[in-house]
Amino acid sequence: AQTVTQSQPEMSVQEAETVTLSCTYDTSESNYYLFWYKQPPSRQMILVIRQEAYKQQNATENRFSVNFQKAAKSFSLKISDSQLGDTAMYFCALISGTYKYIFGTGTRLKVLA
Amino acid sequence: NAGVTQTPKFQVLKTGQSMTLQCAQDMNHNSMYWYRQDPGMGLRLIYYSASEGTTDKGEVPNGYNVSRLNKREFSLRLESAAPSQTSVYFCASSESAPEQFFGPGTRLTVL
Lengths: 113, 111
Fold this sequence. Notes:
The complex is a heterodimer.
Chain A: E1 3-5, E2 10-14, E3 19-21, E4 24-26, E5 32-39, E6 46-52, E7 60-61, E8 64-69, E9 74-79, E10 88-96, E11 102-103, E12 107-112
Chain B: E1 4-7, E2 10-13, E3 19-25, E4 31-38, E5 42-49, E6 56-57, E7 64-68, E8 74-78, E9 87-94, E10 101-102, E11 106-110
C-alpha cells in the first residue's frame, strides 16, 4: 500500500524567514510523482510544486523548493522569504500508476508578522 | 476559462435526505475525480472517472453514487445522507499530465 506521512500538524514562521515542511512516503512503484499543494482559508487547492521521481534535480518554483531524497523516501518543502500570504494548510501528495492521489494529513503553516 | 466549478458551495441536509453535487470542467480533460476532506484526514478519493462513460470506486465509496454525464460533467449523489458524510467535497480533473486541477469545494453538513 502507498502511504504519505506528514508528521508536523502545525508550524509557524516569522515573516521573511525560511521554513521547511516534512513529508515521507512509501511506494513500491518505480515511476511516480510527488506534489505539494497549498490550501488557504478559501479552501481552494493550489499546486505549489511537483517532482518526478526519475529526476534527480530538486524542483524549484520561485520561493518554493523541495529536497527530494529518493532512497530515504523523503520529500520536504522549503519556503524562503516567508510571506503572510503563505499562511495555509500544505498537503504532500503522491501519484503513481493510475493517477490516483494519495494525500498526507497536512501541515498548518502560520506566518507571523 | 473557469477551470473546475462546483455547485453548491454550501449545503445543509437532514439525515435521510438526498442530494446531488454537481461538477463541471471546461479544460477538455478526460479524467475526473471526487474527494472528501475531513479534519486530520487529508483528501480521500470517493470515485473517479478515467474517461467519459467509465466510473470506478476509490478509497471511500460507500454511501455515494456518481454519474459521468458527458466529458464535462461528473456528479456525486448521496441517496440517504448520514451525519458521517458531513465533510468538504472536492471535484478535480486531469488530462495526461499527473496534475489534478481542483474545484473550490462544497461544504456539506448533515444534521
